[in-house]
Amino acid sequence: MTPKEFVAPSARRMFLFLLVLTVVSALGLQGWRTLIKNFSVEVAHLFGFEMGLVQSIREIPGFLSLLVIYLLLFVSEHRLAALSVLIMGLGVGLTGFLPFTSGIVFTTLIMSFGFHYYETVSQSLTLQYFDHAAAPLVFGRLRSLGAVSNIVVGLMILLLSAWLEYKTLFVILGGLVVAVGMWCLTQDPSDKELPPQRRKMVFRKKYWLFYALTLLAGSRRQVFVAFAVFLLVQKFGFTIQEITILFVANNVVGYFINPLIAKAVNRFGERHVLSLEYASLIFVFAVYATTDSKLLVAGMYILDHLVFNFSMAIRTFFQKIADPRDIAPSMAVGFTINHVAAVVIPVLGGLLWLLDYRIVFLGGVGLAAVSLVLVQLIPRQLAGVRSGNAAAKQVAG
Q: Do residues 83 and 71 make contact, with C-beta atoms less than 8 angstroms apart?
């Protein structure tokens, strides 16, 4: 299905705007992630504590995403999206010039603020500009193109790293991201007819299920990000080449599957898609905790990465229950809630790992089970919104 088939003419400029920014932000982030560990060890001579510090600090901007609400008092959302990508590019481009702990911390913060604030605004704009049927398809298309960007930047670094030093690679990546961000600052894909967004923090009782699912999704993500690869390397002895192959496989699978996930959200609804995700995760985490098979754990890693993309259904569920004016502030609050787990889970999981690594993944089973129970409440919430809308129409009539 082409964009013209699911994007209304009035929203096509915004779709292309988000497409360009998403592709270049994926290039910048994946390039930074590919280079930063080797650069930190080989050039900056960081040790384990310093690397852990950098990774923890990288999550701070996600935790502070609620500040996007106040930035929107001074700048429009589409301009903040472009400015965030530009700032991300600056952080990436400067990294090679500051090969010491404080320098890497500084550039990581710049890069991370740009990336996390773009993600927050991008999700908000997608839910505002595309209707209930189109939004999942847009999320799926953007994720697919992000996967292609990841593969491209990986191949680019693989080819260029033999001839270019780290500083030059960071400058090339950062310069490309900055250039695209500057160009997008000159564009205006906005639609003045859309409902204006509230420029203040919004917490509503009727959004409690969205908040709970977002928190649990962030916790599940941290189990994957912080401990899945660590398990593959520490217990199963995966080499960097084998991890790279898994990374490429994840992105190839994601490119083809993400559009199908989006169509499944429209066809079967958020409850069924999220139920499949959490049922799959119960199985995945249980295998992580019990298997001694290298091949099986590699398959679980790919499945784990794949079903993470089902989480777009949490946002499309919110779109259906939300006041249209609450989308921007709620995406900012949701991003902060998601990153609460980034502060707690890695530390708690690390302590539990010292006792027995299986406890971490059995905890993941518990998180997935709670999520599976909660998503069964989605139809009730949607029914409540529909009945509320019907009552409002009767009163208006």
A: no
The region that residue 164 occupies, defined by phi over 0 for left and psi between -120 and 50 for alpha, beta otherwise, is: beta
Asked if 105 and 53 touch (Cβ cutoff 8 Å), the reply is yes
Sign of CA dihedral 96, 101, 106, 107: positive
Instruction: Report residue 146 as tokens.
Output: 């992000």
> 201: number of CA atoms within 13 Å, CB side?
10
Mapped onto helix, strand or coil, the DSSP state of residue 194 is coil
pTM to 2 decimal places: 0.84
Tokens 């695209």 appear where? 180
* Sign (positive or negative) of CA dihedral 369, 370, 375, 376: positive
Query: Along the chain (397 residues), what's the average pLDDT of each consecutive run of 10 residues?
Result: 62 91 93 82 75 74 85 91 97 94 92 94 91 86 88 83 88 96 93 80 88 91 81 80 79 88 91 96 95 93 90 91 88 83 76 87 94 94 66 46
Number of Cα atoms under 13 Å in the Cβ half of residue 279: 8
Both tokens of 160, joined, read 């260029």
